[in-house]
Design a protein that fits this description.
Layout lengths: L10 E5 L11 H13 L4 E5 L6 H14 L4 E5 L5 H14 L4 E5 L1 H4 L2 H7 L5 E3 L4 H12 L10 E4 L5 E3 L8 H4 L21 E4 L2 E3 L9 H4 L5 E3 L2 H14 L4 E4 L8 H17 L6 E3 L1 E2 L6 H9 L4 E7 L3 H7 L8 H21 L2 E8 L6 H14 L3 E6 L7 H7 L13 H8 L10 H5 L8 H13 L4 H12 L12 H12 L2
Parallel strand pairs: 1-2, 1-3, 3-4, 4-5, 8-11, 11-12, 13-14, 14-15, 15-16
Antiparallel strand pairs: 5-6, 6-7, 9-10
The structure holds cobalamin and iron/sulfur cluster.
Length: 506
């Protein structure tokens, strides 16, 4: 068991290296650091390695923390995309300090904690789901060499090597969320992440009730439940950011921001009133919204309170795909589907009219994808003309309903131990029947499709380029006749690749 050392920092919380070009303020680790310091006598620090690519350097950082700072407890955040780095990092920690305790948490490990520990000897404890309360108990137990058997929310390796999964932990109530500290600036300076626009990210709620097929966040945050922080707590954080940390722009990162109309209206009027009382309380903001829960009144209030743009997860406009993957019954019947499309058109129209920019996020490669579904999407994008758009290729994340559907297929295993990121995409094509034709995925169930080339090089670069969606449509038309084996029945991966290769010149 771990020795208790008299060091000034007791735990290093690490955001691992990330190959994604998206990097941001580690809110989750900050919340853990804050709660550890608020509710225990222990000290935490955050090490952000998101942009670090040099593993010698990373090793030196770990050596420094272990040998010079005397830290012997490490907590690492694991996403699916960063899991290979998490493994490498935990192995390095153990090679330098074999008696270190390595705790992992976050969306990737939470759903399969036993397998994660079984396959990774350098990891000692998995924290499942929401981490704050669990970390408080865990810090006390580790520091005092107590038994871990009574700590809910963890899976751990015993001294004899057994892997034990304890009971899940109850979620924090909305009231408890309202007591969490948000003074994160002491761990990492906001301006390190603010891209010259003096921005910060913030979350006003946890969870979402909709359970869309591709989404793991809804299950991660408590099986499709939703908890909103008390409004006064949200405003206390906003005041801290705007008035005390010179933040001028907020990106809200809630799973769903506009679940309740009255909450959105209260939020907007709260901003307007505070700004009237103190003109320094002035900022612009961008929320993620579900389009079917918006109306003109809300949009006008949002605009009046500084909302400049909205991120819409639209994903697809195809009726069958919407019915299958998008929660909320928006395509439960053909009539509902038609109403939904009209709603989308109306909301985009209102946004344009009142001057809110729109960002449309689409998913490529959902079950039943064909050239026809892709064309439907392009057509609709041409109708609504978002200011920006993003196409991503479907990723299968543990926790997402589609993941479980896929996992019922014969031959499916949780393969992460033997996978590098590259292998993962190959192995998802395990029977390879689906490799060429997206439409054949529907025949074989809801397959994961995330071909290497699409994810790593092509779609990401293309999809996130922010320009008018007409561009992609016209490019598609321009290149499609060059695609020799386009069979007009299915949009093949090969063709998508060819299309984007030509377009990007790669
Ligand atoms: C904000 C956000 C971002 C931001 C900031 C990320 C950051 N560094 O924190 C940006 C835009 C940069 C981003 C980027 C990406 N993101 Co993101 N992001 C989110 C989002 C919307 C909120 C995350 C958040 O801050 N939540 C609030 C905090 C409090 O929660 P948390 O970080 O999860 O931490 C809690 C628990 O997970 C747990 N915990 C987490 N880590 C640890 C570690 C230990 C030791 C312990 C004990 C506990 C613990 O305790 C914390 C407190 O309760 C989530 C969706 C969601 N609503 O959860 C997606 C999400 C996390 N992102 C996701 C993805 C895929 C990505 C990208 C890979 C996207 C891409 N294709 O490039 C990149 C990867 C970036 C990276 N560094 O690796 C997925 C991850 C799915 C998965 N299984 O891996 C999610 C779940 C969204 C989804 N699609 O379902 N993201
Ligand atoms: S995609 Fe959005 S609306 Fe659907 S379950 Fe996830 S967070 Fe909720």
């Amino acid at each position: 068991m771990i020795k208790s050392m008299n060091n000034s920092v007791d735990i290093a919380l690490i955001e691992p290296p990330s190959s994604s070009f998206l990097r941001g303020f580690p809110l989750g680790l900050s919340s853990l650091a804050a709660v550890i310091e608020q509710k225990t006598q222990y000290k935490a620090k955050i090490i952000d390695l998101q942009s670090e690519t040099d593993w010698d350097n990373i090793k030196n950082i770990v050596i420094d923390e272990c040998q010079h700072c005397g830290i012997n407890i490490f907590g690492i955040r694991a996403l699916t995309s960063t899991f290979p780095e998490v493994k490498k990092l935990s192995a390095i920690i153990k090679s330098i300090l074999p008696e270190a305790v390595v705790i992992v948490g976050g969306p990737h490990v939470s759903f399969y904690p036993e397998i994660c520990l079984k396959n990774n000897a350098s990891m000692d404890i998995v924290v499942m789901g929401e981490g704050e309360e669990t970390m408080i108990n865990l810090m006390h137990a580790i520091k005092k060499s107590h038994n871990l058997s009574t700590i809910s929310g963890i899976t751990y390796r015993t001294a004899s090597g057994d892997i034990v999964r304890n009971a899940d932990r109850d979620l924090l109530s909305a009231e408890q969320l309202g007591k969490l500290s948000f003074k994160y600036n002491q761990y990492l300076p906001y301006n390190r992440y603010s891209n010259n626009d003096h921005s910060a990210i913030m979350i006003t709620s946890r969870g979402c009730p909709f359970g869309c097929g591709f989404c793991s966040a809804a299950r991660f945050w408590g099986n499709n439940t939703y908890r909103a922080r008390p409004m006064e707590h949200v405003f206390a954080e906003l005041e801290y950011l705007i008035l005390h940390n010179s933040i001028k722009r907020i990106y809200f990162e809630d799973a769903i921001f506009n679940l309740s109309k009255s909450r959105v209206m209260d939020f907007c009027s709260g901003i307007i009133t505070r700004n009237r009382d103190n003109p320094q309380f002035n900022f612009t903001w961008r929320p993620p919204c579900r389009i079917d829960l918006l109306d003109r009144e809300m949009l006008e209030m949002m605009k009046a309170s500084g909302c400049t743009d909205i991120f819409f997860g639209l994903e697809t406009f195809d009726e069958r795909q919407l019915r299958m993957v998008k929660g909320g019954g928006i395509a439960a019947t053909s009539e509902a589907y038609r109403r939904y499309l009209q709603e989308v058109i109306d909301i985009f129209h209102i946004c344009k009219e009142i001057g809110i920019e729109t960002i449309a996020a689409m998913i490529m490669g959902l079950p039943y994808e064909t050239e026809a579904t892709f064309s439907t999407n392009i057509e609709m994008l041409n109708t609504i003309r978002p200011d920006k758009y993003a196409f991503s290729v479907l990723s299968l994340y543990a926790g997402a309903p589609l993941y479980y559907e896929y996992s019922r297929e014969p031959g499916f295993e949780w393969l992460d131990d033997i996978l590098s990121r590259d292998d993962m995409y190959d192995l998802l094509f395990i029977d390879n029947k689906a490799e060429e034709s997206i439409s054949s995925f529907s025949v074989h169930g809801s397959r994961a499709i995330k071909p290497r080339y699409v994810n790593k090089d092509v779609f990401y670069q293309t999809g996130m380029i922010e320009h008018n969606c007409l561009k992609i449509a016209s490019d598609f038309d321009k290149y499609r006749h060059n695609l020799t084996d386009f069979d007009n029945k299915s949009l093949t991966m090969k063709n998508i690749k060819a299309f984007h290769s030509q377009r990007l010149g790669v």
